[in-house]
Amino acid sequence: MAFSFTSPSILINTLSTIEYQVIQYIYSIWLIFGISGCILNLIVFSRPQLRSTSCCVYFFAASTDHLLTLIIGIGPVIYTLNHSDPQIDSIIFCKIRGYLFQITLMLSRWFVAFACIDRYALCSDNVSLRHFSNRRIAYRGVIIIIITWSIICSHRLIFYEIKGNLCGILTNTGAAIYHSLYVILGGGIIPTLIMITCALLIRRNLARKHQKRLHISVIEHHRHSLDHQVLVLLFIQIICYIIFTMPQLCNLVYNAISNTITNRSQERIAIERFVGFIAELMLYMFPVTSFYLYTLTSRTFRGELIAFFHLLSLPRVIFPKTRIAPAVSMGTCGHHIGNPLYDE
Predict the structure, then answer these.
(1) What is the mean pLDDT of residues 247-267?
(2) Rg of the chain, C-alpha, whole Å
(3) Strand ranges (DSSP E) for 179-280?
(4) Tens digit of pLDDT for each residue in 295-306?
(5) CA of 271: how far to CAs of 44, 78, 129, 143, 173, in Å?
(6) Quick one: CA dihedral 100, 105, 110, 111, positive or negative?
């Protein structure tokens, strides 16, 4: 009988210890490598060659969002290792952090989805549709995505509350159902379908164009090579998005079902919480690994990154102050004797 009472406590303590160790070591490493990788992403995508591509506007926005996701998501969690949790100490922080974190999670997914639409428009045989693949429309798309999800996620500012050691939608069943549905649909199923559909259509259009393109100029070849490398980056994002977000979607579906079950045991609640923690851990892999996957898979990305570091390594040439050389009078004509260091 003693074992039956102590085993749930041992299980709960073990899961809590594992969670603490993961936050202390893995989260700290991911925060360092993730932030540095996101900053390098921003630098590379702002380079002139990639900046001229409309799809890279979405990549730049996604990299910015990834940076904010890591800071807003992981930063407060690491802070709680040696301090009290501000999410359960302040209702204002609870609401604002939950609101901003949910927005950042949604934005990166839809930036990638819109990047897929942009590449499909570029590869289309329809001239009118190809006009949608330009930077001006991409900038508008980024603004629309930000405004849309800022409105959709606003329920967190209203219904988030603190109860015990938890911060979230805890007592309002209707708000909890709405939250689960829009995350599953708007954050999982719909953008995934858009990505997969566009990827298949892009591949079909490229196969058609490859057969028609028999003779192309050097400039066109360079342009097509750049577009191909951008597509490689896009497909890498699609694959990583599906792999890293699938555990969270499955966990959300399970939570939506399990919330209808009453009288759950403490060990079951602890296991469900730990599974949710692991799902969120996988979710952070999307922003953390993006830079390193781009570097491994895209030749153009590597080239732009190397060019940036090469630019940093160039020694600064400090020219001495220009001196006015004296004029020597020879007869009636004065000839200026220039400094050979400055005359070409």
Answers:
(1) 76
(2) 27
(3) none
(4) 887 788 888 888
(5) 42, 21, 49, 40, 22
(6) positive
